[in-house]
Write a structure and sequence with these properties.
Number of domains: 1
Bound molecules: zinc ion
Radius of gyration: 18 Å
Distance between the termini: 22 Å
Strand content: 5-15%
CATH class: Alpha Beta
CATH architecture: Alpha-Beta Barrel
Length: 299
């Protein structure tokens, strides 16, 4: 982004912060505090691209989240949605794909700070050590996590989630057998690999066109506690907790702050997609994993 536009964006975000702060306080008092789920892909200083954020920028974003929000896991967020009561703005962290570089900086940082995180991986890419289709298409076949790295992350408290076997684009895959294999079998395969239950699924690409009903049905049949999209929306108390809406951990700090401080103009993206969802699919062991009780003035 050019410096002029960057400055303009930062100034605009700073200008709306007092209003956003009052708005968040009001929503919190009403029990309607927004629940934000961020998704990242790759944290590294080499090979920059649209789905990579530099290490220091990432640390700055985590510092910001820790300072101003509760950091909770997906199960706790679902519980607040189901109860229809959210008394504090909260943030969940997620990662998609499973890039090797994340084990060098991002995951150790989160583990060291005991910040909840769900890390979605593709089993075939891990087992075969093959790059992701989007990286190959970009001529940049970046390294994926090894199975040992995923097991170590799980042992250290990172929740591992399912992101299909082969990073499938369900807008192009309609064969039911393939869809079920990439979701239902992927779940059991991943559970065997990490020797733990896998509770959540994240749709590759995550836009509305990728969330087909055949795939959603397979997610339900597989027994997941919920699935994540990634088209940019908030989670609000009272909404179905099975569909977890996420937005991008934008490397541009002004945009990042704008999203987190609850930009109500973006609520139009909270449209309810026409899925058949289970009435309730909430974990029975909602142990709160709140790490940061502080909620002070947004900066
Ligand atoms: Zn992905």
């Amino acid at each position: 982004m050019n410096p002029f536009r960057h400055g303009l964006l930062a100034a605009r975000t700073a200008a709306v912060m007092p209003h956003r702060q009052r708005q968040l306080a009001t929503l919190s008092a009403e029990g309607n505090a927004p629940l934000s789920v961020l998704f990242y892909h790759r944290v590294a200083d080499s090979h920059p691209n649209d789905w990579t954020i530099g290490c220091q920028r990432f640390r700055r974003q985590i510092d910001y989240c820790e300072r101003y929000f509760e950091l909770i896991d997906l199960a706790e967020m679902q519980l607040r949605m189901e109860r229809g009561e959210s008394r504090r703005p909260a943030v969940c962290l997620t990662f998609d794909d499973g890039y090797r570089d994340n084990s060098d900086f991002a995951l150790p940082l989160l583990i060291q700070r005991r910040i909840p995180c769900t890390y979605f991986v593709c089993t075939a890419n891990i087992l075969n050590q093959t790059p992701f289709p989007h990286d190959e298409a970009a001529g940049q076949p970046l390294a994926v996590n090894s199975l040992e790295q995923i097991q170590a992350a799980a042992d250290a408290g990172i929740e591992i989630g399912c992101h299909t076997k082969h990073h499938v684009d369900f807008s192009h895959v309609h064969d039911e057998r393939t869809v079920r294999d990439e979701i239902i079998h992927a779940k059991s395969e991943l559970e065997n690999l990490i020797d733990r239950p896998v509770r959540y699924f994240a749709f590759p690409y995550g836009l509305p066109e990728h969330l087909t009903q055949v795939a959603v049905d397979a997610v339900i049949e597989a027994g997941f506690d919920g699935f994540c999209s990634g088209y940019g929306a908030y989670n609000l108390p009272g909404e179905s907790p099975f569909h977890i809406r996420r937005f991008h951990g934008d490397p541009e700090m002004a945009r990042f702050k704008n999203w987190l401080s609850f930009d109500s103009r973006k609520l139009r993206k909270n449209f309810s997609l026409d899925f058949r969802l289970p009435a309730s699919r909430i974990p029975t062991l909602p142990v709160p994993t709140t790490m940061t009780p502080a909620f002070s003035v947004l900066g």
